[in-house]
Design goal:
The chain is an all-beta fold. It has strands at about 10-15, 40-45, 65-70, 75-80, 80-85, 90-95. Strands 4-5-1-2-3-6 form a six-stranded antiparallel sheet, with no helix packed on it. A hairpin with a 2-residue loop joins strand 4 (about 75-80) and strand 5 (about 80-85).
Length: about 100
């Protein structure tokens, strides 16, 4: 896996692969695929303090499958692997 340690309240995720075949069986080219909104948490940041000075605790854990926005975060490529670095507040929910 990637050798990146996020800092602060950031989370490193890997987007899940987009479906390349439509529900009707048509194979979609890469240019027609939308960015997937589901991702797996790879690493958590170092934490920090909230606005009241209390220690910040993450709501997600490494390995969680999460729902993220289409356009948030920063794309990074490490060892040929495409990852996304974003703030935990950019995570919309945990997929159960």
């Amino acid at each position: 896996m990637a050798n990146i340690q996020p800092i602060g309240q950031r989370v490193l995720v890997k987007r899940l692969e987009a479906e390349a075949v439509s529900s009707g069986g048509i194979v979609l080219p890469d240019s027609a695929l939308e960015k997937p909104q589901e991702a797996t948490v790879i690493a958590l940041g170092t934490g920090g303090k909230d606005e009241h000075g209390n220690d910040f605790s993450f709501s997600v854990a490494v390995g969680d499958k999460v729902l993220i926005g289409k356009y948030g975060g920063t794309d990074v490529t490490v060892d040929g692997e495409e990852l996304l670095l974003l703030s935990e507040s950019d995570i919309l929910g945990i997929i159960k």
